[in-house]
Amino acid sequence: FYRLLLRGGVHAGVPRQILEEECQCKQSHMPLDNIPVCSLFQEQNCVATAIKKIHNGSFTDRIEECWCIDACDDTTYEYKLSRAQFPGQMAGENMVESFDNLKYKTVSSLRENFIRLHVYFKSLAIEHVEKVAAYTTMNLLGDVGGNLGLFIGANVATLGELIDYAARRIRGAVHRKY
């Protein structure tokens, strides 16, 4: 079976057995055999639902767990499907009239044999995710040095106050004697 890893590295793929049982088809990138390839409708509905169920942990009893490191590079293309009838009634009539040598003489025959396809990126934004240490060695050294400085400074101040206190006590005792 095929594994797709979530960003956290937890195994959350679409095993062929689950797709066969849930959708009675396989994805187009899976090896050839007697199982039919999922249609666009099945991909959008059944396969997407099965993937969500797997990510939510619905099939944990049938999926072996695998803790893997994150992938170094991950490319994801999001898609959105939009459909419209092509050609429209007026455009189809104009096409039939404009192309005399066209073997399709009705708008319905044009609709059955022609397609207008536009492919766009859903978003042109690029997301760059980088792992960085939350607490670096320099942060540690800075914190240790800062705390040491604070404690040493407090100790020196306390030592100065003790010396001052002792000097005042001695001076007070000497003045009382004389």
Q: In words, what does this structure look like?
A:
The protein has 178 residues and is mostly helical. Helices cover 46% and strands 0% of the residues. It has helices spanning 16-23, 40-55, 89-98, 107-113, 137-177. It is elongated. Mean pLDDT is 76; it is low at 1-14.
List the helices and strands and how they pair.
Elements (H helix, E strand, L loop, with lengths): L15 H8 L16 H16 L33 H10 L8 H7 L23 H41 L1
Q: Which terms would index this structure?
A:
elongated; 0% strand; 5 helices
Radius of gyration: 37 Å
Count of separate DSSP helical elements: 5
Largest beta-sheet characterization: none
Alpha-carbon distance between the termini? 100 Å
> Any low-confidence stretches, pLDDT <50, length ≥5?
1-14
Q: Give the structural class.
A: mainly alpha
Total strands: 0
Helix share bin? 40-55%
